[in-house]
Amino acid sequence: MSDATTRPSALAWPAPQFVPAPSDAPSAFTMTRVDVPATLDPDTGIWLPALVADARLHPDEAALVEAMPPTRRATFVAGRLAMRAAVAVHAPQDATGPILRTERGAPVLPNSVAGSVSHKHDAALALVLPRRALTAGASVHVGVDLEHRPIARDVTRPSIARRILTAPELDALSAFDADPLAQRERVILSFALKEAVYKAIDPTVRRYVRFTEVALEFTADGAVAVSLLLPELLHGDMTVRAQYSIDDRWIVATALATAGLSGSGT
Protein backbone atom coordinates (compact mmCIF):
# COMPACT_ATOMS: atom_id res chain seq x y z
CA MET A 1 0.00 0.00 0.00
CA SER A 2 1.07 3.60 -0.55
CA ASP A 3 1.70 6.01 2.30
CA ALA A 4 -1.39 7.92 1.19
CA THR A 5 -3.44 4.80 1.89
CA THR A 6 -1.80 3.72 5.13
CA ARG A 7 -1.32 7.16 6.68
CA PRO A 8 -3.82 9.53 5.06
CA SER A 9 -4.26 11.55 8.24
CA ALA A 10 -0.57 12.54 8.40
CA LEU A 11 -0.81 13.94 4.90
CA ALA A 12 -3.65 16.20 6.01
CA TRP A 13 -1.12 18.40 7.82
CA PRO A 14 0.52 20.91 5.45
CA ALA A 15 4.23 21.52 5.26
CA PRO A 16 5.45 24.57 7.20
CA GLN A 17 5.45 27.82 5.25
CA PHE A 18 8.42 30.14 5.57
CA VAL A 19 7.12 33.62 6.35
CA PRO A 20 9.06 36.86 5.76
CA ALA A 21 10.02 38.58 8.99
CA PRO A 22 9.09 42.26 9.41
CA SER A 23 11.34 44.38 7.22
CA ASP A 24 13.13 46.03 10.15
CA ALA A 25 13.61 42.81 12.13
CA PRO A 26 17.05 41.23 12.53
CA SER A 27 18.07 39.54 9.29
CA ALA A 28 18.80 36.28 11.13
CA PHE A 29 15.16 35.85 12.16
CA THR A 30 13.52 32.76 10.67
CA MET A 31 9.73 32.45 10.84
CA THR A 32 7.55 29.51 9.85
CA ARG A 33 3.78 29.08 9.97
CA VAL A 34 1.64 25.97 9.93
CA ASP A 35 -2.09 26.23 9.27
CA VAL A 36 -4.42 23.83 11.05
CA PRO A 37 -6.26 21.82 8.36
CA ALA A 38 -9.86 23.02 8.14
CA THR A 39 -11.12 19.43 7.80
CA LEU A 40 -8.97 17.98 10.58
CA ASP A 41 -10.71 15.22 12.52
CA PRO A 42 -11.16 16.34 16.17
CA ASP A 43 -10.18 12.82 17.26
CA THR A 44 -6.41 13.09 17.69
CA GLY A 45 -6.19 9.31 17.74
CA ILE A 46 -6.87 9.43 14.01
CA TRP A 47 -3.88 11.58 13.06
CA LEU A 48 -1.51 12.00 16.03
CA PRO A 49 0.16 8.55 15.75
CA ALA A 50 0.68 9.14 12.05
CA LEU A 51 2.60 12.36 12.69
CA VAL A 52 4.82 10.50 15.15
CA ALA A 53 5.32 7.65 12.68
CA ASP A 54 6.37 10.16 10.03
CA ALA A 55 8.87 11.73 12.51
CA ARG A 56 7.14 15.09 12.18
CA LEU A 57 6.20 15.03 15.86
CA HIS A 58 8.24 13.59 18.73
CA PRO A 59 6.53 10.98 20.95
CA ASP A 60 7.09 13.19 24.01
CA GLU A 61 5.30 16.03 22.23
CA ALA A 62 2.43 13.69 21.40
CA ALA A 63 2.17 12.87 25.10
CA LEU A 64 1.79 16.58 25.86
CA VAL A 65 -0.93 16.84 23.23
CA GLU A 66 -2.92 13.97 24.68
CA ALA A 67 -2.91 15.64 28.11
CA MET A 68 -4.29 18.92 26.75
CA PRO A 69 -7.90 20.06 26.47
CA PRO A 70 -9.23 19.06 23.02
CA THR A 71 -9.52 22.69 21.89
CA ARG A 72 -5.77 23.26 22.28
CA ARG A 73 -4.40 20.11 20.70
CA ALA A 74 -4.38 20.97 17.01
CA THR A 75 -2.87 24.42 17.41
CA PHE A 76 -0.17 23.06 19.75
CA VAL A 77 0.75 20.49 17.10
CA ALA A 78 0.86 23.25 14.48
CA GLY A 79 3.24 25.21 16.70
CA ARG A 80 5.59 22.28 17.18
CA LEU A 81 5.65 21.50 13.46
CA ALA A 82 6.43 25.14 12.71
CA MET A 83 9.10 25.39 15.40
CA ARG A 84 10.85 22.19 14.32
CA ALA A 85 11.08 23.49 10.75
CA ALA A 86 12.52 26.82 11.91
CA VAL A 87 15.09 25.17 14.19
CA ALA A 88 16.15 22.86 11.35
CA VAL A 89 17.18 25.85 9.24
CA HIS A 90 19.91 26.83 11.70
CA ALA A 91 20.60 23.66 13.68
CA PRO A 92 19.37 20.57 11.81
CA GLN A 93 21.18 18.33 14.28
CA ASP A 94 18.95 19.74 17.05
CA ALA A 95 15.63 19.49 15.22
CA THR A 96 14.88 15.84 15.95
CA GLY A 97 14.51 16.02 19.72
CA PRO A 98 11.32 16.93 21.58
CA ILE A 99 10.28 20.56 21.97
CA LEU A 100 8.69 20.50 25.39
CA ARG A 101 7.43 23.35 27.61
CA THR A 102 8.82 25.30 30.53
CA GLU A 103 6.75 25.73 33.66
CA ARG A 104 5.72 29.11 32.21
CA GLY A 105 4.57 27.61 28.91
CA ALA A 106 7.44 28.65 26.65
CA PRO A 107 9.02 26.12 24.28
CA VAL A 108 12.15 24.38 25.56
CA LEU A 109 14.65 24.82 22.74
CA PRO A 110 18.20 23.61 22.12
CA ASN A 111 20.99 25.94 23.25
CA SER A 112 21.84 26.70 19.63
CA VAL A 113 18.78 28.91 19.11
CA ALA A 114 16.44 31.37 20.78
CA GLY A 115 12.80 31.05 19.81
CA SER A 116 9.15 31.76 20.45
CA VAL A 117 5.81 30.48 19.20
CA SER A 118 2.32 31.93 18.87
CA HIS A 119 -0.88 29.93 18.56
CA LYS A 120 -4.26 30.78 17.05
CA HIS A 121 -7.08 28.28 16.67
CA ASP A 122 -6.36 27.94 12.95
CA ALA A 123 -2.58 28.46 12.72
CA ALA A 124 0.67 28.75 14.64
CA LEU A 125 3.77 30.83 13.96
CA ALA A 126 7.31 30.08 15.15
CA LEU A 127 10.27 32.45 15.36
CA VAL A 128 13.88 31.30 15.70
CA LEU A 129 17.13 33.23 16.03
CA PRO A 130 20.47 31.36 15.90
CA ARG A 131 22.61 32.13 18.93
CA ARG A 132 25.73 32.27 16.77
CA ALA A 133 24.33 35.57 15.45
CA LEU A 134 24.24 37.10 18.94
CA THR A 135 26.69 39.34 20.76
CA ALA A 136 28.93 37.47 23.17
CA GLY A 137 28.05 38.05 26.82
CA ALA A 138 24.48 39.12 26.18
CA SER A 139 21.37 37.28 27.31
CA VAL A 140 19.00 37.41 24.36
CA HIS A 141 15.43 36.21 24.01
CA VAL A 142 12.81 36.67 21.32
CA GLY A 143 9.04 36.84 21.22
CA VAL A 144 6.43 36.51 18.50
CA ASP A 145 2.69 37.01 18.29
CA LEU A 146 0.23 36.21 15.52
CA GLU A 147 -3.19 37.85 15.31
CA HIS A 148 -5.96 37.89 12.74
CA ARG A 149 -6.25 41.19 10.95
CA PRO A 150 -9.64 42.66 11.90
CA ILE A 151 -12.43 42.86 9.35
CA ALA A 152 -15.48 45.13 9.14
CA ARG A 153 -17.73 43.09 11.43
CA ASP A 154 -15.10 43.17 14.19
CA VAL A 155 -15.70 46.87 14.87
CA THR A 156 -19.03 46.01 16.52
CA ARG A 157 -17.34 43.81 19.13
CA PRO A 158 -16.25 45.18 22.52
CA SER A 159 -12.85 46.84 22.35
CA ILE A 160 -9.92 45.76 24.52
CA ALA A 161 -8.27 49.17 24.20
CA ARG A 162 -8.78 50.30 27.80
CA ARG A 163 -7.43 47.01 29.13
CA ILE A 164 -4.18 47.03 27.19
CA LEU A 165 -3.26 50.63 26.31
CA THR A 166 -1.51 53.23 28.44
CA ALA A 167 -3.06 56.69 28.78
CA PRO A 168 -0.81 58.20 26.05
CA GLU A 169 -1.61 55.25 23.76
CA LEU A 170 -5.33 55.82 24.30
CA ASP A 171 -4.87 59.50 23.46
CA ALA A 172 -3.03 58.59 20.25
CA LEU A 173 -5.86 56.24 19.31
CA SER A 174 -8.16 59.22 18.85
CA ALA A 175 -6.38 59.94 15.56
CA PHE A 176 -8.32 56.99 14.13
CA ASP A 177 -11.78 58.12 15.32
CA ALA A 178 -12.92 58.68 11.73
CA ASP A 179 -11.97 55.13 10.70
CA PRO A 180 -13.23 52.53 13.21
CA LEU A 181 -11.63 49.62 11.34
CA ALA A 182 -8.20 51.29 11.30
CA GLN A 183 -8.66 52.09 14.98
CA ARG A 184 -9.47 48.45 15.75
CA GLU A 185 -6.41 47.38 13.77
CA ARG A 186 -4.16 49.69 15.81
CA VAL A 187 -5.53 48.16 19.03
CA ILE A 188 -4.92 44.60 17.80
CA LEU A 189 -1.45 45.57 16.56
CA SER A 190 -0.65 47.06 19.97
CA PHE A 191 -1.87 43.87 21.64
CA ALA A 192 0.34 41.76 19.35
CA LEU A 193 3.42 43.90 19.97
CA LYS A 194 2.96 43.80 23.74
CA GLU A 195 2.46 40.03 23.65
CA ALA A 196 5.68 39.62 21.66
CA VAL A 197 7.55 41.88 24.08
CA TYR A 198 6.16 39.97 27.06
CA LYS A 199 7.41 36.67 25.64
CA ALA A 200 10.85 38.16 24.98
CA ILE A 201 11.28 39.59 28.49
CA ASP A 202 9.59 36.81 30.47
CA PRO A 203 12.71 34.61 30.83
CA THR A 204 14.37 37.57 32.57
CA VAL A 205 11.58 39.14 34.65
CA ARG A 206 9.76 35.84 35.32
CA ARG A 207 6.49 37.40 36.39
CA TYR A 208 3.18 38.45 34.97
CA VAL A 209 3.61 41.77 33.16
CA ARG A 210 0.56 43.99 32.75
CA PHE A 211 -0.12 45.33 29.27
CA THR A 212 0.21 48.86 30.66
CA GLU A 213 3.77 48.08 31.83
CA VAL A 214 4.84 48.05 28.18
CA ALA A 215 4.54 51.39 26.38
CA LEU A 216 4.57 51.75 22.60
CA GLU A 217 5.21 54.79 20.45
CA PHE A 218 4.58 54.52 16.72
CA THR A 219 6.78 56.77 14.59
CA ALA A 220 5.88 58.50 11.35
CA ASP A 221 7.93 56.01 9.32
CA GLY A 222 5.97 53.03 10.66
CA ALA A 223 8.48 51.89 13.26
CA VAL A 224 7.64 51.38 16.92
CA ALA A 225 9.62 52.27 20.04
CA VAL A 226 9.22 50.17 23.19
CA SER A 227 9.57 51.37 26.77
CA LEU A 228 9.40 48.99 29.72
CA LEU A 229 7.63 50.52 32.72
CA LEU A 230 8.85 47.87 35.13
CA PRO A 231 10.26 48.94 38.50
CA GLU A 232 12.93 46.24 38.38
CA LEU A 233 14.20 47.51 35.00
CA LEU A 234 14.63 51.24 35.54
CA HIS A 235 18.36 51.49 34.91
CA GLY A 236 18.85 50.31 31.35
CA ASP A 237 19.16 46.67 32.36
CA MET A 238 17.45 45.51 29.18
CA THR A 239 17.07 46.71 25.62
CA VAL A 240 13.94 45.73 23.70
CA ARG A 241 13.28 46.16 20.00
CA ALA A 242 9.96 45.31 18.38
CA GLN A 243 8.81 45.06 14.79
CA TYR A 244 5.62 44.21 12.96
CA SER A 245 4.16 43.37 9.58
CA ILE A 246 0.59 43.28 8.29
CA ASP A 247 -0.76 41.43 5.27
CA ASP A 248 -4.27 40.68 4.03
CA ARG A 249 -4.88 38.08 6.74
CA TRP A 250 -2.38 38.41 9.56
CA ILE A 251 -0.76 40.84 11.96
CA VAL A 252 2.69 39.59 13.00
CA ALA A 253 4.72 41.13 15.82
CA THR A 254 8.27 40.21 16.84
CA ALA A 255 10.49 41.34 19.70
CA LEU A 256 14.15 41.00 20.65
CA ALA A 257 15.17 41.54 24.28
CA THR A 258 18.83 41.90 25.23
CA ALA A 259 20.03 41.90 28.83
CA GLY A 260 23.54 41.94 30.21
CA LEU A 261 24.79 44.83 28.09
CA SER A 262 24.39 48.54 28.67
CA GLY A 263 21.44 50.01 26.82
CA SER A 264 18.74 52.65 26.87
CA GLY A 265 15.96 50.33 27.97
CA THR A 266 13.92 51.04 24.85
From TrEMBL:
GO molecular function per UniProt: holo-[acyl-carrier-protein] synthase activity; magnesium ion binding
GO cellular component, as recorded: enterobactin synthetase complex; plasma membrane
Keyword Magnesium: yes
Keywords: Enterobactin biosynthesis, Magnesium, Metal-binding, Transferase
Pfam families: 4PPT_N, ACPS
Cofactor dependency: Mg(2+)
Residues that, per the record, bind CoA: R72, R80, S118, H119, D145, E195, K199
Pathway named in the protein's UniProt entry: Siderophore biosynthesis; enterobactin biosynthesis
Binding residue positions for Mg(2+): D145, E147
Stored Gene3D superfamilies: 4'-phosphopantetheinyl transferase domain
Record GO biological process: enterobactin biosynthetic process
Occurrences of domain 4'-phosphopantetheinyl transferase N-terminal (ranges): 60-128
Subunit-level organization: EntB, EntD, EntE, and EntF form a multienzyme complex called enterobactin synthase.
Annotated function: Involved in the biosynthesis of the siderophore enterobactin (enterochelin), which is a macrocyclic trimeric lactone of N-(2,3-dihydroxybenzoyl)-serine. The serine trilactone serves as a scaffolding for the three catechol functionalities that provide hexadentate coordination for the tightly ligated iron(2+) atoms.
Family listed: Belongs to the P-Pant transferase superfamily. EntD family.
Full protein name: Enterobactin synthase component D
